[in-house]
Amino acid sequence: MAEICPVVNTEKLLLATDASQFSEGAIREAIRLAKRCSSKLSVLSVIETNPEYETIAPQLLEKAEKSAQEHLGSVKERAKKEGVDCTTSILEGEDSFNYISDEAAKNKVSMIIMGRRGRSGLKRLMMGSVTSRVIGHAPCNVLVVPKAAQVDFKSIVVATDGSKYSLAAASEAIGLAKQNKSELTVISVVPSELMTPTDIDLTMTHKELIADKEMHEAEKNVKSVKEAAQKEGVAVKAFVMSGRPADAIIEIARDKNADLIVLGSHGRTGLEKLLMGSVAERVIVLSSCAVLVVKRK
């Protein structure tokens, strides 16, 4: 009996991989998803280079090309064993995130799948500049998969703050939960430190009023998403928490054994520079499960 595709729109998937160990989860889940959904899978590796580098160290570029070819060959072989036909390509140039997002736009890709850190990642807690910039510039949703994560769409957590970005994320999460008959957990977090240093002269009464307003907004946001989910027949639970937003989201995901967190994205800025909320970035960095970043259409 064939497995049911867990995602509604997966006609074309783009796996972006750099052959590092951090791409392993993305490779595994991209092949798995493509198999379940009979998706067209494209696999892309981008070699970061520039004219000066090519002139000074052509042998290093040649070595990188050979490594990329071998890596893509192994991915294609893994996909073939699962009955998934995929195309592979290697691109070269500066700012690899542009090549990935442009490739997704050109081929009208439904979803980009990639690991949390690339070769540009420092040996400290960060997701990797390529991943973060792809999220900012991508024309479609981006699924970020940690090395050991498996996406089963059984328990889904979605965070909402009432913004247009989180509304898009909530809509996507409800659709996923309905499609997979999974449990949905909705969370809104009231930051525990609402005041900035410039607000120290405010009276405690004013601070309490602001905190009450934030709590009221959070309750309204989760209630709205909960009601929308219930209308779709989705089993849903809603929570309002206080504390550091990213940490609270991670905590609830861990408590619910979530295999997917759904978040909104801020998208582009006029400077063609990533402007992703610090909460979203921290969630992606700290989460042990996959994170789906939803792009607002």
Give the gist of this structure.
By secondary structure, this protein is α/β, with parallel strands linked by helices. The chain is 43% helix and 22% strand.
Instruction: Enumerate the spans where pLDDT stays under 50 for 5 or more consecutive residues.
Output: 118-127, 194-202, 267-275
* CATH architecture name of the largest domain: 3-Layer(aba) Sandwich
What is the SS-derived class? alpha/beta
Average pLDDT taken over every residue = 83
Shape: globular
Give the helix proportion (percent range). Answer: 40-55%
Termini Cα gap:
35 Å
Order of helices and strands: EHEHHEHEHEEHEHEHEHE
Strand order of the largest sheet: 3-2-1-4-5-10-9-6-7-8
CATH superfamily annotation of the largest domain:
HUPs
Total helices: the number is: 9
Query: What's the total count of β strands?
Result: 10
The gyration radius over C-alpha positions equals 20 Å
| CATH class division of the largest domain | Alpha Beta
Count of discrete structural domains: 2
- CATH level-3 fold name of the largest domain: Rossmann fold
Strand content: 15-25%
Major β-sheet profile: 10 strands, mixed
